[in-house]
């Protein structure tokens, strides 16, 4: 495949940055998107140019590291992570525009790499349990209906990649935060900090400068893990109920 | 900050205000459209004028009208705050914009709302202010005097520009409601597989039915005055 890549290049956080066009040839349709980026970077390195910086780690769709905004979609045209996107999703001769996630709370570090530690701080604010949950319990030993366990698991599949923020017209982190609040609110282990968790995580989310939700549903449509908007409704309920009932005056 | 101000100044708290004021205004619209249907009675405006007097003098209605004013102002102020925050959350935009997967209304609630606000100001100036402070002709039904608001309404909607402006505003209102109705319930946290389909359906019916009923009034008056 022969492609034209339009890639956002930015030296550092204070650099203004801009698009640079790279023609690339000899791409196999079986390559993953990141392997195509590797080919480009090898060519740039041989030419003595600075390779394009981008985040990646597991390359099997579970870590949430990769974060490219491809042709106007986070993680590209398929509802998956960039590492699981293959070049067969594109046609020979295509021009592909690659940009970093855009949000005030996700400042660009270099090229396509953004600093997503705002998500870490939201988790640090309350996305944990401080009770000892012991080893893996036997099946049916803890009184959780299958339906609830499944729902909590669905929320827990959020890999924190930030595609929801990238897709949202308001750069809102409500889908992420709500998934992290939900996965613990539904299970017995999460009850101890249930109220303070909702209050603290929402406060941290606001402090990081993310926008608010307009219920457009762009996040749900682009989420590689299919996290649903019902999580945001649950977060709202958790937050209202925590505000009314917690002892935090 | 007390827990109340802290909650209401969070993004979720401000969205809660948007949802509650929005739902109250939906209730208001329901009452408003039902009362105005009296325009169709064909009794020369008697029922409508009696209703208009009741709506401006009854103490319970008066109280409700203050809640309505506060709701409109609150809805506007909190939407400005939220929109400003949402705009600053992405200082550098994307180079590529794609056909979005979201609805037109959900992406343009602020613009639709701004036009509706302009309409409300003009609308209140034309009818509400006239009813309250205007020098209206007086009619007498069964010995009691009433301000003849019906004559103002009939006169206003003989002007095709007013009719067109009114109908356009109702189209914008329909779009605003098509997202706002269901969105308010989602913000309240009411998302449930049993009830959400019903909320979505009622929202769809409401956002079409109510603006059509409103728009039918000036259109009806315009065409009956022509004949």
From TrEMBL, chain A:
Question: What SUPFAM superfamilies does the database record attribute to this sequence?
Answer: 2Fe-2S ferredoxin-like, alpha-helical ferredoxin
Among PROSITE patterns, the record links this protein to: 2FE2S_FER_1, 4FE4S_FER_2
> Biological process GO terms, please?
aerobic respiration; respiratory electron transport chain
Which organism is this protein's natural source?
A: Algoriphagus antarcticus
Name one molecular function that GO assigns to this entry.
2 iron, 2 sulfur cluster binding
Chain ranges of the 4Fe-4S ferredoxin-type domain: 149-179
Looking up Gene3D superfamilies in the UniProt record yields: 3.10.20.30, Alpha-helical ferredoxin
Task: Point out the signal peptide segment.
Answer: none
What cofactor does this protein call for? [2Fe-2S] cluster; [3Fe-4S] cluster
Q: By what name is this protein known? A: Succinate dehydrogenase / fumarate reductase iron-sulfur subunit
List the top taxonomic levels of the source: Bacteria, Pseudomonadati, Bacteroidota, Cytophagia, Cytophagales
Record-stated family: Belongs to the succinate dehydrogenase/fumarate reductase iron-sulfur protein family.
Automatic annotation (TrEMBL), chain B:
InterPro entries in the cross-refs: Cytochrome_b-558, SQR/QFR_C/D
What's in the keyword line of the UniProt record?
Membrane, Transmembrane, Transmembrane helix
Can the keyword DNA damage be found in this entry's annotation? no
Query: What's a single GO CC term here?
Result: membrane
CDD domains from the UniProt entry: SQR_TypeB_2_TM
Task: State if Chloroplast is listed as a keyword.
Answer: no
Q: What is this protein called?
A: Succinate dehydrogenase / fumarate reductase cytochrome b subunit
